[in-house]
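Task: sequence design from structure.
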């Protein structure tokens, strides 16, 4: 049975009943049909609320199931009598129609209604795209209408956005052939990588949203003076488009667990976490909040800890690192065609990837962690035991689970161990770098301590960007988001396992004043993905009754 077939078999509860499980009154719900709602309840984080972060090894073509494990774990905690809520990201249409399909879990561990969430949902991404492009329109209009701000068209740094994978938009020319308008080059980011997405994810309330929007750096003048969105008087109009999108969305799992699904920055080219508001709202009404961060722990978990936790004052009580036998064998040199065969040699060779992630969480961030082995039917007992032995040498437990096939019942032991971990003292939590470190020091610490690089090389363009930014604003107190491939600790997607003898190449550094961080572009990482030769979109069908197939 496919994920879509499973989701259609499930009887959903009215969303007001899901909200009632958390103690949220229907007066605080804005209904989008019977199974989705915006929530405007007051945020007041419980003093003893527990926060569980689910992360993973570096992803491979075999899949790891991090979101599926997050959902199954939350269901398992609720089955054990622990009042639990999920806080997850919204899927982007780029990957949905691109290479991997939807992002709502799988099997019997899904958030529902799956089709709605994977597509337009409550319109948040459309609102973000509209607000982003409104600002772009205001920039070009200001130049056209006499250019009172003296904007240099060749130094517009704010990009348009669209929530699709479209490599043709990586470089465009605007105003071509438009009478009396100034033609200039520009590019698009995918919506999940745009600054407005990051701002909405990190904003604490509407006034904070407006402040952050006003702080977006949009361009420089001919004499090098920075121009911000507030100079264009754009913040209020953008906030008007975003006022509903700012409210977290409430849906449910197959097991009836409440799930806040809100915002969706990618972890390879953005900061990879759901919204601060959704996380804190879950922590205000549940005893345990299970959240996940995108891709491997070198990307999503690092940014969750060094950016989101630093910004929002959060601290996870436990970290779950998801791994699969299949993915570790790929990291160890096995071919994709042979993953169903027992291969202890490849598994042992690839174990270094998991062990580095465990060491980072345990030794760099000093957080209690556990490994969740997302078991596939082809995994052998010997392979499972191999993983357990390897991590036990780091005094970390590994627990197998089958949440795809059994839902929450497939993660009962994992839930028990997570509760035990949350009872330990994690007051030693620390960041990978300090606020007072300069920008290059922060990048070097992440590259050497988290990625295992031996060195970092900054291109001339990156150094020039740093120098230019330092002249116009204070940047050393900002956290750094490194945009790099998700497939490797390095900036080379083909360098699997746990490489150490490599140099991280930083080609440019961009300022995100509204979001409150810098973006360091590593290797050839781009902010607008492209489609594969056979994208997921060409495999989708819809029949005369509106039934969709191929969505996941």
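Answer:
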């Amino acid at each position: 049975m496919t994920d879509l077939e499973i989701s259609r078999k499930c009887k959903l509860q009215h969303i007001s009943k899901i909200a009632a499980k958390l103690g949220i009154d229907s007066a605080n719900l804005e209904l989008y049909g019977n199974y989705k709602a915006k929530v405007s309840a007051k945020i007041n984080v419980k003093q003893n609320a527990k926060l569980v972060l689910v992360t993973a090894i570096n992803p491979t073509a075999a899949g790891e199931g991090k979101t599926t494990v997050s959902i199954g774990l939350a269901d398992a905690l609720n089955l054990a009598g622990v009042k639990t809520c999920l806080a997850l990201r919204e899927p982007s249409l780029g990957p949905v129609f691109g290479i991997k399909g939807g992002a709502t879990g799988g099997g019997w561990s899904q958030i529902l209604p799956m089709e709605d969430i994977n597509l337009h949902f409550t319109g948040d991404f459309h609102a973000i795209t509209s607000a982003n492009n409104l600002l772009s329109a205001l920039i070009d209009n200001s130049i056209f209408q006499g250019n009172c701000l003296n904007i240099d068209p060749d130094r517009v740094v704010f990009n348009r956005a669209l929530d699709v994978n479209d490599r043709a938009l990586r470089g465009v020319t605007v105003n071509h052939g438009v009478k009396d308008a100034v033609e200039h080059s520009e590019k698009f980011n995918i919506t999940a990588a745009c600054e407005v997405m990051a701002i909405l994810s990190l904003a604490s309330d509407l006034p904070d949203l407006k402040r952050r929007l006003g702080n977006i750096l949009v361009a420089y003048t001919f004499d090098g003076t920075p121009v911000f969105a507030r100079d264009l008087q754009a913040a209020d109009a953008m906030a008007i488009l975003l006022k509903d999108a700012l409210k977290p969305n409430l849906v449910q799992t197959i097991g009836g667990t409440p799930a806040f699904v809100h915002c969706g920055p990618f972890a390879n080219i953005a900061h990879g976490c759901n919204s601060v508001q959704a996380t804190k709202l879950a922590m205000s009404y549940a005893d345990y909040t299970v959240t996940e961060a995108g891709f491997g722990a070198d990307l999503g978990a690092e940014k969750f800890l060094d950016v989101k936790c630093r910004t929002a004052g959060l601290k996870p009580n436990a970290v779950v690192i998801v791994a699969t036998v299949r993915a570790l064998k790929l990291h160890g040199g096995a071919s994709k065609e042979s993953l169903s065969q027992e291969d202890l040699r490849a598994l042992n060779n690839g174990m270094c990837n998991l062990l580095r992630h465990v060491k980072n969480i345990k030794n760099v961030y000093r957080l209690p962690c556990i490994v969740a082995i997302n078991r596939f039917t082809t995994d052998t007992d010997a392979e499972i035991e191999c993983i357990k032995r390897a991590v036990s040498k780091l005094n970390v437990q590994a627990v197998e689970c089958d949440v795809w096939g059994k839902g929450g019942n497939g993660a009962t032991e994992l839930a028990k161990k997570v509760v035990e971990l949350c009872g330990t003292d994690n007051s030693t939590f620390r960041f990978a770098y300090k606020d007072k470190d300069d920008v290059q020091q922060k990048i070097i610490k992440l590259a050497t301590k988290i990625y295992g690089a031996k060195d970092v090389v900054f291109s001339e363009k990156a150094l020039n960007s740093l120098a230019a930014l330092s002249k116009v604003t204070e940047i050393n107190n900002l956290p750094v988001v490194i945009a790099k491939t998700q497939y490797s600790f390095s900036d080379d997607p083909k360098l699997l396992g746990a490489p150490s003898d490599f140099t991280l190449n930083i080609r440019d550094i961009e300022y995100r004043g509204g979001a409150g961080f810098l973006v360091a572009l590593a290797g050839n990482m781009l902010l607008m993905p492209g489609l594969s030769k056979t994208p997921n979109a060409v495999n989708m069908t819809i029949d005369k009754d509106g039934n969709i197939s191929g969505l996941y």
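The CA atoms of residues 77 and 419 lie 8 Å apart.
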